[in-house]
Amino acid sequence: MFSEATYNGIGFGLGFSVTMNPAQTLIPGSAGEYSWGGAATTSFWIDPAEELAAIFMTQVLPSSAYPIRGNAHPWSTPPSPDSNL
User: Fold this and answer.
1) Which neighbouring-strand residues pair with 34?
2) CB 37 within 8 A of CB 47
3) Cβ 56 vs Cβ 35: under 8 Å
4) Would you put residue 66 in left (φ > 0), alpha (ψ -120 to 50) or beta?
5) Which residue has the higher pLDDT, 70 or 9?
6) Which of 27, 43, 61, 77 is the most exposed place for a label (fewest CB within 10 A)?
7) Contact 31, 22 (CB under 8 A)
8) What's the pLDDT band for 62 if we cut at 50, 70, 90?
9) Which residues on adjacent β-strands are paired with residue 37?
10) Residue 48 · residue 36 · CB < 8 Å
11) Averaged over 32-52, what is the pLDDT?
């Protein structure tokens, strides 16, 4: 497996992916968020709608050994104002 995620709801720009339809990605985020994953499970994402940027650095090879990128994204998502947290 080349990627830990499907490409549903994702488009591509010059050097990064762009979330086109967040519901189809099954990962929390906003339309217009852009990101990219690299070797050793590194990743970055920038969500202009939430004014959020994250850089995630690890040393896990192959990146499919443990799907940590998909798990790390919700950790950085701010809680909803309606949340009980």
Assistant:
1) 18, 46
2) no
3) no
4) beta
5) 9
6) 61
7) yes
8) confident
9) 43
10) no
11) 87
Look up tokens 């994250």; give the residue.
54
Amino acid identity at 49: A
Pairing of strands 43-47, 34-37: antiparallel
Classified as helix, coil or strand, 70 is helix
Confidence of residue 70 (pLDDT cuts 50, 70, 90): low
In this structure, what token pair is assigned to residue 41?
A: 């499970």
Alpha helices (runs of H) in the chain, residue ranges in sequence order: 22-25, 68-76
Residues near 59 by beta carbon (within 8 Å), at least 6 away in sequence:
40, 41
* Alpha-carbon gap, residue 35 to 50, rounded angstroms: 14
Residue that has been written with the tokens 């995620």 in this structure: 5
Nearest alpha-carbon partner for 7 in 32, 24, 31, 29: 24
Q: Nearest to residue 62, comparing CAs of 77, 41, 31?
A: 41
